[in-house]
Design goal:
CATH topology of one domain: 2-enoyl-CoA Hydratase, Chain A, domain 1
Order of helices and strands: HEHHEHEHEEHEEHHHEHEHEH
Number of strands: 10
Shape: extended
Structural class: alpha/beta
Strand order of the largest sheet: 1-10-2-3-4-6-9
Strand content: 5-15%
Largest sheet: 7 strands, mixed
Length: 343
């Protein structure tokens, strides 16, 4: 009997383990199937409602019971009047909306893939009564990447939908190429704005290779298929051609900015320098000093404000790696904290 009891217990444990393994496998398969269904997902957040809820919550704590009761009554009366006005109208007016998009760009501007999805979504529902507000944060990067990002913003202009840009921290070089497309540009007092210039840096290891007697061969068809090279010996002719290409890019950059801000003195500002917001408004690079928070809170009192965000779905392997990284970081931080004196 004891043998049967132990065998039954062992069998039950084995079955439990098998079921647990199967459950994990099914979860993994389910996640994989979901990931194959789409590359990303679009989310819409009502920022006006969030601000109203925050205001309501704070007033509840800050006001006396009598004051808060009167405040709630006022809100209800206002809502009733609004609903009554809507009922009396044969065709209720569509409330204008503001769509907020955040763009934090890297050197290669790969974030433009999400930006194009967000803009396409907005253009599918927005009218000329609505507005798009884009928070741009970028120190610039590759010409083709930021050229495409600016072209995505131009889609909004082409649809006759008012476009505003907010610069809280930095919009330099390619970042300003994006910002200048807007009908109106806001910047925080110490935000970095401008840097209308072009830069290219190429290291050369030719002397190092020669020192170690390493040969390097490069073959091209076309005189200027390659100008400067990293490993070969550069010529004066190649350097001049490279500089010429930089100048051509700079001219295209200035022409692009002049199209959207024709009153800008390009000879004065297209020197590759950058300015702070307070200086940028004097130079005509921006239109108003304000943070994105100021602009959004003001708009939220007048209309509905929605944040539009397109998120790429992470692969299961990426999620596991990210979770493992967070766990390791937490362990390291715990050990580090033990060695730190209390303050």
């Amino acid at each position: 009997m004891e043998f049967l009891y132990e065998y039954g217990l062992f069998f039950a444990k084995t079955i439990t383990l098998v079921i647990a393994i199967l459950a994990v496998v099914l979860v993994i398969l389910g996640t994989a199937v979901k990931q194959k269904s789409g590359k990303g997902e679009l989310s819409l957040t009502n920022m006006s409602d969030e601000l109203k809820k925050l205001k309501h919550y704070l007033n509840e704590d800050l006001m006396s019971k009598k004051q808060f009761k009167a405040y709630e009554k006022q809100l209800k009366d206002t809502q009733k009047e609004k609903e009554k006005a809507e009922k009396s109208e044969k065709e209720p007016a569509i409330e204008p909306k503001t769509f907020v998009i955040n763009f934090k760009g890297s050197i290669d501007a790969h974030e433009v893939s999400a930006l194009r999805e967000e803009i396409s979504a907005v253009l599918a529902v927005a009218t000329d009564k609505d507005e798009v507000l884009v928070n741009v944060e970028s120190g610039g990067g590759m010409v083709h990447g930021y050229g495409l990002a600016a072209s995505q913003l131009d889609r909004i202009r082409q649809a006759d939908i008012p476009l505003s840009i907010c610069i809280d921290k930095v919009a330099a070089s390619g970042g300003y190429m994006m910002a200048c497309v807007a009908n109106k540009v806001y910047a925080a007092p110490f935000a970095i704005v401008g840097s209308i210039g072009v830069i290219a840096q190429v290291p050369n290891f030719n002397r190092l290779l020669k020192k170690h007697k390493i040969d390097y061969e490069q073959h091209t068809a076309g005189d200027f298929k390659r100008t400067l090279t990293i490993f070969g010996e550069n010529t004066d002719e190649a350097r001049e051609k490279f500089k010429e290409e930089l100048q051509e890019t700079h001219v295209l950059f200035k022409t692009f900015i002049a199209k959207y801000r024709p009153d800008l003195d390009l000879e004065k500002v297209a020197t590759g320098e950058h300015w702070y917001g307070q200086q940028a408004i004097e130079l005509g690079l921006i239109d108003e000093i304000a943070t994105s928070d100021d602009v959004i809170m003001k708009l939220a009192n007048e209309r509905s404000v929605f944040k539009v965000q397109y998120k790429l779905k992470k692969k299961l392997s990426d999620k596991i790696a990210h979770g493992a990284q967070l766990t390791v970081n937490a362990i390291i931080n715990q050990f580090a904290a033990k060695d730190q004196p209390l303050k």
